[in-house]
Amino acid sequence: IYTLFNSLPLFPANRTTEDSICCVSSTQGNSKDDVVTIDLKDLKTNSDAGSDKISSSENSDLEDITATPWIGGIAGNRPPTSSNTTASNNSANPVGSVCVSLLVVNTDPGQDKYPAPHSYPWMAALIRKDKGNKQFCGGSLVDDRHVLTAAHCLTVFRTATDLPKLEILLGAHHLGSSQRNWKTFKVSKIYKHAGYSDSKLTDDIALLRLSETVEFSDKIKPVCLNRGNVQEYDNGTAKATLAGWGQPCPKCSTSKVLRHSMMRLWTNEECQDKYNKVPVSIRHRVPKIQPTMVCAGSPGADACQGDSGGPLFTKVGGSYFQLGIVSWGIGCGEYPGVYSRVDNYVDWIDRNRNKN
């Protein structure tokens, strides 16, 4: 999550404009429907890669965090204690998910860029065990067995042999803490949307099935999915909260402590207008804003590399609803971040999390 500085480069100093919008190439299998599935059952020999310990070093290698086309982070602006979005009468979140409701959180955070520990109990940290146990993306717990994230975070996990390299942390706040008071889960299946495109960054959504059932607590609870519960949120004035462990500035390492920020939700039209003004040299490589995307960002408030896959959410009627999944962007704070629009994918999510 990006922190505002007086002068911001359009692109981080360690990146060229040519690779600023790129993401890892993906080789996905054929699929008869709209999902590509990677199943641990297909792995004949299951071996664990790496240790279970998270590195406490503050100096992470930015080249190891290659999963994200995002080149940006979350700023220290005040997260919302209320929302000017409108709640519909449909307040239920089906499929048996007991999502976070009537949770008192951050009643007066002021300008604190760090939320109180476990304020957002749905937050998930994705860990690369084969890269020194580095956190490389975020995600959100949506029920007692599944974590929602971005498809581009998982392009390096192509076969069942890759699954043991991926680990999920729930209930985490300070990733460098020696207390390690989080729960660790392995992944048994990956459901990636078959429509995901590296060039267009469409359908940037994936679902992770955990190897065991999650026991809910005050530190671990699922977020509600927006099923039309939150209306008129993309009218250009509404705001939402983003949380993650991404880079707080363009040249910084990813954050060991969870950060959060409030930001404005843009209309897709004004978001596209903004991206039409990128430098001519890279304009042909910038994806078009699609109806399946939603944009968000404010001065000094933006997602960044390492935040990808994490949730954009808002509180309405006493419940927290996820509106978006961090997908892509350019720079830190110069352009709005682009998110996969959750309410467009609830049928896809339900269909896949109800599979055996």
From TrEMBL:
Region (Disordered): 70-90
Alphabetical keyword list: Disulfide bond, Hydrolase, Protease, Secreted, Serine protease, Signal, Zymogen
Domain annotation Peptidase S1: ranges: 104-354
UniProt source species: Allacma fusca
GO cellular component terms attached to this protein's record: extracellular region
Main location as per UniProt: secreted
Gene Ontology molecular function: serine-type endopeptidase activity
GO terms (BP aspect): proteolysis
The keyword Lipid biosynthesis appears for this protein: no
Family recorded in the similarity comment: Belongs to the peptidase S1 family. CLIP subfamily.
Amino acid composition bias (Low complexity), ranges on this chain: 79-90
Pfam families, A to Z: Trypsin
Entry annotated with the keyword Nucleotidyltransferase: no
Protein name from the UniProt record: Peptidase S1 domain-containing protein
Subcellular location field: Secreted
